[in-house]
Write a structure and sequence with these properties.
Length: 346
Amino acid sequence: MAVSEGDLESALFLALGEPKFQKFLQSHVELKGTYEVDDIRTQYPRNSDAKGRLDIHSKFRKGNKFAVIGIELKTPQNSADSDQLSRHLQTLKVKGKNWQKKAEAKNMITKYLVISKGFTIDKSVKEIKQKASWKSVIYWMSWNKIRDFIDRPPKKPAYEMLRKRLKGAGVIDSSETLSANIQSAKKLANAWEEKMEDIIQETDKIGIGLSSLEFELHKKGFETVDSRTGYAYSFIPNHHSRLPRWVFKEFKHPINSDYNFLFGMKISSGKWSGSLVPKKLTKTSMNIINKKIKEHKNKTTRIFQKKVWSYNSKSQDFEFDGWHFETNRSPKIVSRFVLEVFGLDG
């Protein structure tokens, strides 16, 4: 059963009972000082329509000063809605007409936090944050950042339900094996016309799981490369099919411009694979990449694999080797291997 916004809302509400989690959110929205919880409510205010109602309204106190953090959350598959964000800022009594920012009540600070799809700031939040007067009001956070925090030892009982719900949505502990219901996805592919929605949901989970690896690599200085175009790449979706050939991410490191790291799943095989993508697609670069890949082959966490991906155009045909990650393929272990390949492990 799919994890709903309501499931995540209830789990996040329980996590907010833990003072360290309160401080974690306060720090993210740049709320300075030691504020103690005063009141936390869900679906606030109850008498508002759905678009104006906040998922969570949390109020904190420091002496005679108060701070409110309004929270809007989406599942890891969904982005925020611009109109709903506008209505929420009105609910928080900080937005007037034409995006005029209202003066806050005396001794009151108001913040608005959006938790939604993706690894980079939600487009709707970014557009509002670019307005000068709203920069210190609206904030965005990824589910991966929350997952990273609640998985730090010692694991608090207050976070147990949130960990469970996030795992069900595909956002996993970076120490766990990358998860996706591959057998289910393969069976559903045989009934493509009848089960399109289910297939897309399962493949979406693979992409969400990859965000955990993305989180780990970004901590080490890597950057995510924009999606490539052109069907000559074997990992780019076919133009005639909604089902991707691969669900993948490509990463680069600033000190190495010769090649990037490619990691993901070839849907038809249900296997996690990795390889390197050279800056220039030539026979020489192919040979260099394949030689380097063989230098890092056959350990318990990975197995050398021929022709992980290819580039086939009218004028050029290249086949690149790589690795099949069969066991211990957690984001942390994969990220350590990437550091080794890029010569950054020391």
